Amino acid sequence: MRADDKNRHRYKRVELYLKQQEMDIFHRKAEHYGSMSAMIKDAVAQFNDVATLGKIEALDAMMTLYRKYQNDLSWMGGNFNQLTKRANELAISGQLSREYYDNVVFSEMEKIQDLLQHIKDEQSAIAHKLIRL
């Protein structure tokens, strides 16, 4: 098949104006291709949309955040269960004082609430980043 026959079915032409320095870069990169157009077609096929990449990065950040806080919440949940069990044992035996509740039980509940609020704030920041993309 002749070259003219191959190109007969291609009827769209793209014009591109380049500075000499840019043209040199195109020629250098096209050396490993059969033609300049083959190099450009390959580059376009491999092009990654910037907005899509940003969304993927944000989703990766969100997943990292979820994993981190899942581990933190599991650790804190275990500690909280131990604390609650001990508080119940003491309450049943009449040994749980108001001071213990205020200084230990309530203190741990405040830490958990603070962590949950921090998680919500970070998730909100990432969600806003996704919306802006």
Low-pLDDT segments: none
> Structural class, from helix and strand content?
mainly alpha
Largest sheet: none
| Span of the ends, CA to CA | 47 Å
Helix content: over 70%
| Global geometry | rod-shaped
- How large, in whole angstroms, is the Cα Rg? 31 Å
Task: Give short descriptive properties of this protein.
single chain, about 130 residues, mainly alpha, 5 helices
Characterise the protein shown here.
It is a single chain. This protein has 133 residues and is mainly α. It has five helices and no strands. The two termini are 47 Å apart.
Describe how the helices and strands are arranged.
Elements (H helix, E strand, L loop, with lengths): L2 H5 L12 H11 L5 H11 L3 H43 L5 H35 L1
Helix pairs in contact: 2-3, 4-5
Could you write a compact summary of the structure shown?
The protein has 133 residues and is mainly α.
